[in-house]
Design brief:
Order of helices and strands: EEEE
Distance between the termini: 76 Å
Largest sheet: 4 strands, antiparallel
Number of helices: 0
Strand content: 25-35%
Radius of gyration: 22 Å
Length: 59
């Protein structure tokens, strides 16, 4: 009889971020935190819907 080899599943691939990995984020204003204590002024916090990257813009 022939030797039966067990089936091997391929390893899980890394989740691709689509357009975010090329710098095309989908920015949305995050209204939870609007005041920065360290700077002492209002800031606008943007969060990417796809990859949850964050950027801050001071007013």
């Amino acid at each position: 009889m022939a030797d039966i080899l067990p089936f091997k599943r391929p390893p899980a691939k890394r989740k691709h971020q689509g357009m975010c990995q090329h710098g095309f984020h989908k920015w949305v204003v995050c209204k939870e935190k609007q005041f920065d204590v360290k700077q002492g002024r209002l800031v606008t916090v943007y969060r990417c819907e796809r990859c949850n990257a964050q950027k801050v813009k001071a007013l």
